[in-house]
Design brief:
Blueprint lengths: L7 H9 L10 E4 L4 E3 L13 E4 L2 H6 L3 E2 L10 H15 L7 H8 L3 H12 L3 H19 L4 H7 L5 H12 L3 H7 L4
Parallel strand pairs: 2-4
Antiparallel strand pairs: 1-2, 1-3
Helix pairs in contact: 3-4, 3-5, 3-6, 6-8, 6-9
C-alpha cells in the first residue's frame, strides 16, 4: 500500500460515518472480538479503545483477526481493486496538483476508462473524490489546529483560496470559519 497518511482520529471518523469511499484503504480490527471489517461496515460500532487499524489484509490477518461475515472485506473484485488503487493514490497525493492522466498512468488504464470505472464504483469522479479528501483534511485541521484558513487551504492542496472556500461550502454547507466556530475551536 502506498504511504497512506490518515491519523487514528480520521480513520475513526470514517468508520463512524460508514464511509464506503475508504473501503480497501484500511481495515478496522476489534481487539475484543478478533474480527476485522471495512470502514463502511454497518455492524455495531466498537468502543474506540478496542479498535486497531491496519492498511492491508495480510497485516490484519497476521495479527490474528478474521474477516467479518457481514461486510466480507477479504472478497475482492478487479474493478474495485483499480478504484481502490486510485483512492489510495489520491489520499496519498492530495497535497499535489494532480491531473487525470497522472492517476491513469499510476493504475495503468486510459483516462477515459479510469473516469468511467471510478464513477461506477464510487458514484463520483476522481476530481470530486480528491476534493472530498481535501475538504475532509481541511475540516480535520480546522478542528485540531489554530492555523489560519489560508494556511490550511494551501496545506491540503487547493491552488487558490476561492476554490477552497467554494469546495468547503459545497461539502460542509458552511464556510471554514463557520465550521471552526461550530466545532468550538477558537
Amino acid at each position: 500500500m502506498e504511504d497512506l497518511k490518515l491519523s487514528f482520529e480520521e480513520m475513526w471518523e470514517k468508520i463512524i460515518a460508514c464511509d464506503r469511499s475508504y473501503d480497501g484503504l484500511f481495515f478496522t480490527a476489534v481487539k475484543t472480538t478478533k474480527i476485522y471489517c471495512r470502514p463502511s461496515c454497518r455492524s455495531r460500532k466498537p468502543k474506540k479503545t478496542n479498535v486497531e487499524f491496519y492498511y492491508t489484509i495480510d497485516d490484519v490477518e497476521k495479527a490474528g483477526y478474521r474477516a467479518c461475515k457481514r461486510c466480507q472485506p477479504e472478497v475482492g473484485h478487479p474493478q474495485r481493486e483499480v478504484a481502490q488503487k486510485v483512492m489510495a493514490f489520491l489520499v496519498s497525493h492530495y497535497k499535489h496538483k494532480i491531473i487525470l492522466q497522472d492517476i491513469a498512468d499510476h493504475v495503468g488504464v486510459s483516462p477515459y476508462y479510469l473516469e468511467r470505472l471510478f464513477k461506477h464504483e464510487t458514484a463520483e469522479t476522481p476530481r470530486t473524490y480528491l476534493e472530498k479528501i481535501r475538504v475532509d483534511k481541511a475540516a480535520h485541521l480546522l478542528q485540531s489546529t489554530k492555523r489560519t484558513n489560508l494556511d490550511i487551504c494551501y496545506e491540503v492542496g487547493f491552488q487558490s483560496p476561492s476554490n477552497f472556500y467554494k469546495a468547503f461550502r459545497r461539502r460542509k454547507q458552511c464556510s471554514p470559519s463557520e465550521y471552526r466556530a461550530l466545532k468550538g475551536v477558537k
